[in-house]
Amino acid sequence: MTQTTPDATTPVGRLDPEDAQLALATVQEVLHRHALVENLVHRQEQNDSRSDLVEGLLHRQHEAELSALVNSLHPADIAFILESLPNDDRLLIWRLVGAEHDADVLLEVADWVRESLIEAMDRQDLVAATGNMDADELADLAPDLPPDVVAEVQKGLTIEERARLIEAMGYPDDSVGSIMDFEMVRVREDVSLEVVLRYLRRLPELPDHTDQIFVVDRKDKLLGTLTLSALLVNEPEIDVSSVMSPDYLSLSPLDSDSEAAGAFERYDLVSAPVVDDLGRLVGRVTIAEVVDVIREDSDEQALSRAGMQEEDIFAPVTMALRNRAPWLLLNLCTAAIASFVASRFEDTVSTIVMLAFLMSIVAGIGGNSGNQTMTLIIRALAVGRITEKNVWQLVKREMLVTFLVGLVGSAVAAVFAWGISGSIPIALVMMAAMICNMLIGAAIGVLVPVVRTRFGKDPAMGSSVLLTFATDSLGFFIFLGLATIFLL
């Protein structure tokens, strides 16, 4: 797709993420200029008809400028711009996007933006945008589309396409079936490579990311794969069965899409066949879908650590409150518990005031140590490296590593405590409390993600909140408790 950018020196046809950022800056500048001009026109003391005429001309001029800019971009870059604008500006730009880009942009934008774009489209435009989509693409959009639009689009599908659509919509989210592609090339094993080449030349184009051809029998049972390189370098007279590879990685429609992403990463795949329980070829997964899965999993994990869900950064305040408030309130409760624990040692702190300055260090270091462990564990869970057989070995290893690191770190902290307090007992108490709290942080960092995974929950969801609660409350309790026992 030919792409132009606001930068006149940019070669036509070159795709560059920086082009989208430049285009976004230009769009924002035009929108800002448009708002300023409208305000000036309204302030001028002119009769209403002339003012409306000037405003209308300027409005059409700005829309023409924005339309020319946006429609010269790749659909993915248009999606980036829409995601980066407040809702009113987003809908203004969306109305200027050419109808030929509607389907691609709807597939590219994030879910939280797609809903608002679909709401802004009338039924006729939605049917036109989705009418030429493949079954797998339409299945991605179907949950966000009005039921009558889906029904209307289904009428224009062939029986085979309709069956594919129903099949794709029947698979659960986050499964291989929900991301698989039905467009692929398959051949029989008893034909020659010359026949395969002639067949490929009759196709309008090869499906995207075609690096291998799937060899099937008359019942569509997958027998092997034929790579394009093997097709091109061997003599045309050779049969497919002689050069096909019977060893291949296949996926089940019910496999997790995260597991599929791990397989692609491990084996450097470009595409992989999807087969049902009877071994029949039903689709394929390509690297394009896998990259999207990896990106979405990464985003979800980063947000889950803070107890958040994906949200529109320009969403109404009430929606943001519903997303963020629950875990923040929980965090407030845990912080209150930590403060309550510290208040139970009021006499100790009032007698040895220096403890009030040191106890935050104990809690903070324990939290940081636990966060390191938790990050490693969540990552290992994501790629499937933790099993029932090695989890306790992992716990012991993390406790040992944390203990050794704690010895070194607590020694440094003890020297610091002795330096500002002049008391060796205070330094020793701080050293012991730091080691204990770091061990607690490491244990929480391992057990919380593992236990949540065991119960089918997101291991990252709210994990940092729970970790902070444990290291703050128990850190204060251990440090002030030891101080009460040994210093008073």
Characterize this entry briefly.
The protein has 488 residues and is mainly alpha-helical.
Structural account:
With 488 residues, the protein is mainly α. The chain has 3 domains: 17-174, MgtE N-terminal domain-like (MgtE N-terminal fold), CATH 1.25.60; 186-305, CBS-domain, CATH 3.10.580; 317-487, Tetracycline Repressor, domain 2 (Orthogonal Bundle). Helix content is 67%, strand content 5%. The protein is built from 22 helices and 5 strands. It has a 3-stranded mixed sheet with strand order 1-2-3. A hairpin with a 5-residue loop joins strand 2 and strand 3 (222-227). The longest helix is centred in the C-terminal third of the chain and has 31 residues, at 391-421. Mean pLDDT is 85; it is low at 1-12.
Keywords for this entry:
3-stranded mixed beta sheet; 488 residues; CBS-domain; two-stranded antiparallel sheet; disordered N terminus; Tetracycline Repressor, domain 2; mainly alpha; 67% helix; MgtE N-terminal fold
Please give the structural blueprint.
Layout: H1 17-43, H2 48-70, H3 75-83, H4 87-96, H5 99-108, H6 111-120, H7 123-130, H8 135-141, H9 147-155, H10 159-170, H11 176-179, E1 186-187, H12 193-202, E2 212-216, E3 222-227, H13 228-233, H14 240-243, H15 257-267, E4 271-275, E5 281-286, H16 287-305, H17 317-343, H18 346-351, H19 354-382, H20 391-421, H21 424-454, H22 463-487
Helix pairs in contact: 1-2, 1-3, 3-5, 5-7, 7-9, 8-10, 15-16, 17-22, 19-20, 19-21, 19-22, 20-21, 21-22
